[in-house]
Structure formats: structure tokens, C-alpha cells
Amino acid sequence: MSQFWKPGAEKPRLLDDEEGGVVFLSSSLSSASSIGYGYASIEKQRQRLPVYKYRTAILYLVETHATTIIVGETGSGKTTQIPQYLKEAGWADGGRVIACTQPRRLAVQAVASRVAEEMGVKVGEEVGYTIRFEDFTNKVRHLSSYLSIFGVIIFVMHAGISSLAVQDLTAIKFLTDGVLLREMMDDPLLTKYSVIMVDEAHERSISTDILLGLLKKIQRCRSDLRLIISSATIEAKSMSAFFHARKGRRGLEGVELVPRLEPAILSVEGRGFNVQIHYVEEPVSDYVQAAVSTVLLIHDKEPPGDILVFLTGQDDIDATIQLLTEEARTSKKNSSGLIILPLYSGLSRAEQEQVFSPTPRGKRKVVISTNIAETSLTLEGIVYVVDSGFSKQRFYNPISDIENLVVAPISKASARQRAGRAGRVRPGKCYRLYTEEYFVKEIPAEGIPEMQRSNLVSCVIQLKALGIDNILGFDWPASPPPEAMIRALEVLYSLGVLDDDAKLTSPTGFQVAEIPLSIWVSGRGAQKELDEAKLRFAAAEGDHVTFLNIYKGFLQSCKSSHWCHKNFINYHAMKKVIEIREQLRRIAQRIGIVMKSCESDMQVVRKAVTAGFFANACYSEAYSQSGMYKTVRGSQEVYIHPSSVLFRVNPKWVIYHSLVSTDRQYMRNVISIDPSWLLEVAPHFYQQHRLNPIH
Ligand SMILES: Nc1ncnc2c1ncn2[C@@H]1O[C@H](COP(=O)(O)OP(=O)(O)OP(=O)(O)O)[C@@H](O)[C@H]1O
């Protein structure tokens, strides 16, 4: 192993990252490092975490400062402990709630379970969580709530769910930052929360950035609200500068305010267990192959302990699993006893939960994951992390109006988070599939905020729905590119969602929206069967009508999970589909939309999709045999994704829902249309002459 791997220099970690952000993970272990946590009581485990020594300091700073920024090594106990300290100190008294946001749903659920376990309560009681579609707060368990669908519908949904609100008895609530944003539509000042902890703030998702901007606004009206911004890898000084700089602050100079407006910064020193970093000596050309070899080497040479591999997406993960399974079978090394599990957001809940189950004695679990497992998660058995150095990231070009999902190098912050998934319950090792020189010199300290590389349509709608009309003047932690903002306003204006003054119009475009559900279960090891199942529902009109067929089939099966299993359909997603439909029906009723079935007239459905996504129209040129399409707006070359029922059917005119970029630009969720509908539904957007030559 030593021929392939070179251990990282062992120097103490510098908190300010003066050496270009290099993580030199210290070899000096904390007192807990040689003791198995499994044998200590939960209370003892809590007290051994580095953050415990800072309990009093944290409570003091939160009491006296409107904003506290806490930087502490991964695994030091920020997420699980700080909300509990706050509760113990009385911040949840009088029915108030302590909120802790996470960028990802899986982390929300996992952390809520852990904290509930530490407090000896059930999830949904004193400790609860809310993610899209699932609200496990209070004593009443109800599945309902928040629906993130493209833009306008969020606004409608909000109105629809307000009647469902119940009194919150939960003291500590974990939630995604997106869900907290949606709560602001009901309660703009978030009055029930006493402290809001924005965890993993370095991730800088669009929702986190909007949330940070809005929380700063709320602070002006609520001197009782406290914010905690926490992460292992955040640039604390710039975050502090953002919260300190206040527009229009008059007459406050020289006055000592409590809480103080200048943010406090606290560095939590120390880590749970040591993680040894190893780098490859030479760059690898194929990270899938390198990941497979590394897993087999670890399995062959290293003591027991599970392995977590970070790759970029489902395609990579499936390829790795296949290769690993084959190589493990043919390898001379002792490769029996590997339990290989994928982890990505498209998997069913049950499949995701398998990664948390204990590894049977004598076996070694290998979890192959996207960056879904990068932050906040503790997978107890993980001792080894293999980091490919890449992730899938969105990049939006406002000029061509195309958003690509591309495989791109991760940042140092991400690499540190990934390494941090080892060493949480005992010492660990992280194998980076890139050289140390590359890590030091090439990769950036932090990633580009999502806000600066995304299509901003839904972000603009969200802000407008929250009453922020002057979007260009909004106080962002990082300003979005003006071109992307202008493009978003233009699209929303064309949709009839914004009026001439860039204000939200009455709910004109609200009836058409995207519901981002992936209802197919992955076809691991059974791609042929999955393809056959898809064919059973396939509609010549395209993917949306196919989804409708599946919905009808599900109803006919009396919503049977067995039926879903047989047809490779995600049962949980189908249950959500039913809930969403019910919510939409209620909203439609409330705002006076007359419900009328289209019966079997699929043209109505296709026109409705056209009205919502007219900007995504494409045509195939008569002479083109290659399956190549061109977008009407930008004449970009695009192709139908192989997962679409229209793949190889190639109708002349289509509308797509999203584009993904791999070797080519692929359209996902595609429906065939008649181009004359474009003029009908969006005459302000398309002119006859633009469509005629290709009609
Ligand atoms: N589900 C769990 N099972 C066992 N131990 C756990 C679990 N969750 C947390 N822990 C223990 O608590 C420690 C602190 O976890 P916590 O998530 O609070 O750290 P953190 O500082 O927020 O880390 P990160 O920045 O990586 O999210 C872990 O390192 C681990 O020792």
C-alpha cells in the first residue's frame, strides 16, 4: 500500500489555514482516541467531545451577541451538542424553539435521531425534524407540509398549508434551510424560534444564502433572536463582516447594545479522533478504477472497519459497484465479506437507511456515495474514507440559459468534510485519489456559492413571495451575477408571474409547475427489468404522460407497495405524489380554480406542460439523423437522455424539463409538442418568424 499511497505531512492543524488552507491533520490524539466510544455511556461520550469544554463560552456569547460564528473541526460536536446546551440553558423555555438547519435532508433526519437518542426521547417529541414533505415535530406525526416545486407553486403551497399549522411543542428542531425559508412565508419574523443555528454554512447553497440574507434582515426587528453560524470549514471573518455591515444603521454609533451586533467568532479547538490523510503519489487517470483498487487494498491490508467512498453521481456509483463486485469475485485477495451499498438522493428511503445499519461481525461495509454523506453524517462503522476529489456541480450560463450538471473538482473545504467522516467514533484514515501537490496548489479553499452558478428563477420567486421586491438591492452574502438575475426576471415576466413593475402578479402561472420527484427506483443489477417496467407505462407523447400512466396504475393497484416493487417504482415517492396532488386540489379549490378532468385527452396535459416550460422548446432538423436537437432560444445542441421514453423516438418538437451535461447536453423529462402551441401559450416570448423557418 505504501507504494501507492503517501501519508500527508503530520503537522498540527492551523485554524487560520495560513498554509493555503492545507489540512495537516494532527497526529496527536485527543484523550478519547484510544477508548472505544461504544463502551462509554452517552453522557460520558457527550462530555468527551471537544465542544464540551466550550459550553459556558458558547452560552455566554449567544446571550450577549446577536450572531455567533462557531468554527470547529468535523466531529467536534457542534451539530449534536450546541442545540442541547441551548435547551439546557433555557432557550426553549416558554414554548420557544431552537432551530438547527442543514443543507441536506438525510443529515436532518440522522442528526435528529442522534440528538433524540442522546436526550432519551423519541423523534417528533422534544426533538423533531422537518424536511420537504415530512414534519416530525410535536407529538402529532403528520406527513404533509412543504412542497418544493419550481417557483410559483411554492407560493401557492404556502397558502395551502397554513391551515394545517399546529402548535409547536418541539424544543429542538432540525430542518433543511429550504424548509425554514418556506416557514417564513407563514411567519416572516420566525417568531417561534429563539435561536437559529445555520449549520454547515460553508456549503453556501442558494437556500443558505437567501436564509442568511433574510435572517440578517430579521435581526433588525428582533433583538431577542440569536443566530449561530457554524461549520468546520467556514471563512469566519468574511461571514462576520457580512453580519456586521448594516445598511441604514443610524444613531447607533458609540452606543453599547445588548445583544452586540458585531458577531462573535469562536474557534473550537480539538478533534474527536485522528484521521490520517494519504495521497496518491501520481495523478490517477480513472477515479472509478482507482476507487475500486483502493477499496480492495484496504480490505486486503487494513484492520476491520467500514469504508466510505465519495464519487460524483449515480452513474459513477453504479459503475463502481459493478466493477468492485466483479473484481472482488475474481481477485485472489481475500475479498469475501464485502457488503457494498450505494448512497445517493434518488434511492428509496429504505435503501438509504441500510447504510446506517450495523455491519455484521466478520463483514466490511463499503458505502459508495455522492456528497450526500459529506457533512454532518456519522456512519458509525466508518474507519476509512476514499475521496475521488470530484463532485457533480451545477453551472449556469445566463447567456445561453443552460444549466449544466458537470463533474468538477471539489474544494479544500469539501475534502476536509469528507475526511471528517472517518474518525468519528475511532481513529480513521482518508485516502485521497489525488496528489498532495494538487490538493495544496490546485484546488480552491472554498467552492463557488451555488447562487453564483445557478439559474435564479426559483430563487427570485421565493424572494418575491416573501415580499422582497427590490431583489437587486437585497443584502446577499455573495452577490449573484446580474446577467443571471436579469435572465430570471425576464423568464418570470414572460411567464406572466411578474408584472411590469417586477411585482408578483395574481396567480396566473400558478397552475403549471414541475414536481421534482424521481419515481423510478434505480435498476441496480436489473437494468433490463427496469427498462421493461418503464416500457409497460411508456406513452408516445413523452415522459409526463408516462408519469400519469404510472399514477393511474398505482391507483388501480389500490396504492400497493407490492405493485411498486414489481414495477421498479419508488413506493415512498408515489405516496408523496398522492399527497402533493391532494394539496394541489385543496389549493385549487380554495383559490377558485374549477377542477375538470382532462379524461383521456392528453393534448391538454401536453399544452399545460408547454405553458409552463415554453422557454425549453427544442426542434430536430429534418435532415438530422443523429438525434440532435436545437434549442429555439439559443440554438444549442441537445439530445434526448437515454432514460426518457422518447429516446430514439425523436419527435420533431419537444419540451424538456431539465438539462444534464455529461459528454453531451441531455434533455431529461421530455414531452412532444406541436410548435403552434408555443405561439398560443407564449406569444410575448416567441414570434412567428422565429418558429417559421423550422416549422
Ligand atoms: N449516530 C451517531 N452514532 C454514534 N456517534 C455519533 C452519532 N452522531 C454523532 N456521534 C458522535 O458525536 C460526535 C459529534 O458529532 P456532531 O455531528 O455533533 O459533530 P460536528 O462537529 O457537527 O461535525 P460535522 O461538522 O462533521 O457535522 C461524532 O464525531 C461522533 O463521535
Q: Any overview of this molecule?
A:
The chain is an alpha/beta fold and 695 residues long. Helices cover 34% and strands 18% of the residues. The protein is built from 22 helices and 22 strands. An 8-stranded mixed beta sheet has the order 5-4-6-3-7-8-2-9, sandwiched between helices. A 7-stranded mixed beta sheet has the order 1-10-17-14-11-13-12, sandwiched between helices. Strands 18-19-20-22-21 form a 5-stranded mixed β-barrel. The termini are far apart. The relative contact order is 0.10. Residues 9-39, 139-166, 508-517 and 521-525 have low confidence and may be disordered. Bound molecules: adenosine-5'-triphosphate. Residues 37, 49, 72, 74-81, 114, 232, 272, 375-376, 378, 380, 420, 424-425 line the site of adenosine-5'-triphosphate.
Summarize the structure.
It comes from Citrus sinensis. Keywords: ATP-binding, Helicase, Hydrolase, Nucleotide-binding. With 695 residues, this protein is α/β, with parallel strands linked by helices.
